[in-house]
Design brief:
Number of helices: 9
CATH architecture of the largest domain: Roll
Structural class: alpha/beta
Strand content: 15-25%
Number of domains: 2
Distance between the termini: 6 Å
Helix content: 25-40%
Largest sheet: 4 strands, mixed
Order of helices and strands: HEEHEEHEHEEHEHEEHEHEEH
Number of strands: 13
Length: 255
């Protein structure tokens, strides 16, 4: 390995003082907070004020597809994701194994006190500072799903739900126009936009791209500069793959 993993501690790259909500808060209000704070994870406390689970953009999307809308329910009965407790002095690359292999969100505890949360995007902040620049060929997804710009928002989220993906490419006149992500969906919900509206007005565009074959650190730099978690990769003017922050962390991990 071309860098010393001992230099990358969780406490140096975690997001401190993560937002948590009471179990009595309405789901709709929690979504508003996530959209305003631009976060993809919301910690839900139990009745004693202890973290009990994490609401993610995936659960929100699932409610929309299965129920046709956001139900009027409190966070205490919302289906949430489990999490793994880690300590601030653990190493980023070590906890990456839990994030990627067990697919668990990571909450940072100092003893019994919640002090932070660390995501793949947080990890990349540290990995970008190292001398590593791994290949991405083994980790990128070459299955890129798309919708036309005149398709409905609901059609895109239904595709995302069925394929278990966090975004769809948006195409206009057979040319890549933009991308619609789970984060874009949060913005749609907070503005009470009907899900039958066309994607054209709510996708993120212009589409940020890079050449297929780009290295991990270079891709992370582009994603950080543009504040995105997914980067479309082009080959001969066609989008052939999509790389995420998690993919890049995985590439550093297997160097």
């Amino acid at each position: 390995m071309v860098f010393d993993k001992l230099e990358l501690k969780v406490e140096d790259y975690m997001t401190p003082n993560p937002i948590s909500v009471k179990p009595t808060l309405k789901l709709k209000d929690a979504i508003d907070i996530m959209a305003k704070k631009k976060i993809g994870n919301m910690i839900v406390d139990d009745e004693k004020g202890r973290p009990s689970g994490i609401l993610t953009e995936r659960e929100i999307l699932t409610y929309l597809v299965k129920d046709g809308g956001i139900p009027d329910i409190e966070m205490g009965v919302v289906q949430t994701k489990p999490f793994t407790m880690i300590s601030p002095d653990e190493l980023v690359l070590d906890v990456a194994n839990t994030l990627l292999e067990k697919k668990r969100r990571l909450l940072v505890f100092d003893g019994k006190k919640l002090v932070g949360i660390i995501t793949a995007s947080d990890m990349l902040k540290g990995l970008r500072t190292t001398g590593g620049n791994p290949d991405l060929e083994k980790v990128v997804s070459t299955r890129v799903y798309s919708c036309d710009y005149f398709d409905s928002i609901f059609r895109s989220i239904n595709l995302m739900f069925k394929k278990r993906i966090g975004s769809v490419l948006v195409v206009k006149n057979k040319i890549p126009f933009g991308i619609f992500t789970e984060r874009d969906l949060l913005g749609v919900l907070t503005k009470n936009i009907p899900l039958q509206e066309r994607l054209e007005n709510y996708a993120t565009h212009p589409l940020i791209t890079a050449k297929y074959g780009i290295k991990g650190k270079d891709a992370a730099e582009i994603m950080n500069k543009n504040k995105i978690k997914r980067l479309a990769l082009k080959k001969n003017d066609a989008i052939v793959a999509m790389v995420t922050a998690r993919d890049i962390v995985d590439a550093f991990r297997i160097v």
